[in-house]
Amino acid sequence: xxxxxxxxxxxxxxxxxxxxxxxxxxxxxxxxxxxxxxxxxxxxxxxxxxxxxxxxxxxxxxxxxxxxxxxxxxxxxxxxxxxxxxxxxxxxxxxxxxxxxxxxxxxxxxxxxxxxxxxxxxxxxxxxxxxxxxxxxxxxxxxxxxxxxxxxxxxxxxxxxxxxxxxxxxxxxxxxxxxxxxxxxxxxxxxxxxxxxxxxxxxxxxxxxxxxxxxxxxxxxxxxxxxxxxxxxxxxxxxxxxxxxxxxxxxxxxxxxxxxxxxxxxxxxxxxxxx
Length: 275
Description:
72% of the residues lie in helices and 0% in strands. It is mainly alpha-helical. The longest helix is centred in the N-terminal third of the chain and has 31 residues, at 45-75.
């Protein structure tokens, strides 16, 4: 990726700061999506399902093109089976999200508070709703952070272009995620300001996870293929467990599927063009 696509001040920053700025960008796009609540009290179900499908497609493509493929390539010269770190990290990422799902109190949109998952608590419904989305934003921030941290390894498969492409892709799919949180909250009786606040707050975890991911791979280079695959596994868990079922819950499965195809193609294009 040619340097003129990015400002010089960004190119001169250390990798952790680059990861922080990239994930602050993805968080800001979550807020932008959540701001639609100031314009609409509700969104057509077909549009929302299409947007969720689009987000799922981007996450699936990012998991392979930006995370798993580089992890496999990095392992080729290590002397161990090149599939091993990718498979181990991928499964550990899914296991991490599964355990978090069982432990962290949260509530998915459209469900009654009695159907909250995780450890039982007396927390308010609004808090449980935000925690559900926040939990699923962890792997997105982690993925971006790991991608920027990988630049410190000087491996051919770790490029600034691919890291920027991943941040752009995650940012784009965060727009419908922000909308998918704030608008249903407004429909359930929350004020516009409160709905927006909770919608953008769901993305707050991404800069935190991004910095942790970047710092981890910089300080412990051997874990890089596992870390990339871990982020991929966590994202795929979110897609299969939450995003796709939610997008297919109504009668708009074709629209959601087309959205997923478009999202996948866009993320693939970004990674190939910028990587």
